[in-house]
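Quick start: what a row looks like.
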Amino acid sequence: MAGEDIPISQTALLLCDLQNDFLHPQGAYGRAGQTSAAIAALPARLKPLADAIRAKGGWIASTHFTLFTGKNGEPLIDPHLRKLRPFLKKGDFVMGGWGHQVVDDLAPSDLPVEKVGYDAFYATRLEWILRKVGIRKLLAAGIVTNGGVSSTVRGAHVREFQVTVLEDGCAAFTRELHDTAIAALHPVAQISTVAAELAKLA
């Protein structure tokens, strides 16, 4: 299956968590100073590929980390996340809000899916909607390489999607974390670059 030539009509660029609350300076992480140059560079780097995939008849899918709310709009934050990210507050990552949306450079998404954990297939409709529109191949990009990207790529692999990880289309908070995660994904995915995938489309 890894070498099967799947047409662009059955291919999706999967944008993992490239949301305003993660990337925009006025988003939740930006206000807290939680970013890296590698993460900030992703939207501009991925935009030409996203545009080319749209033009050729492919799909843009996106995962959106979501803080669902309880009474009075208070976010339901797991204790481990509260400890790691104490700056998260009411209004952050709320479904339908500005911070929840994919960044402007990469919008719109054809298939947006909200998620609650690292693996975007866990307790979501991602697999259902990908199957519904006939997608068999995923080009995985986004943040963070060692978290949501790695977990989602493994989730796609066990569901028998053909997965290509865009090495320079993903980022983590340190280069070491990124490189280690990419090395660990070789057994379950092909590894490529934005430029290589653009060249295939051309």
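That is the whole record. The chain has nine helices and six strands. The radius of gyration is 16 Å.
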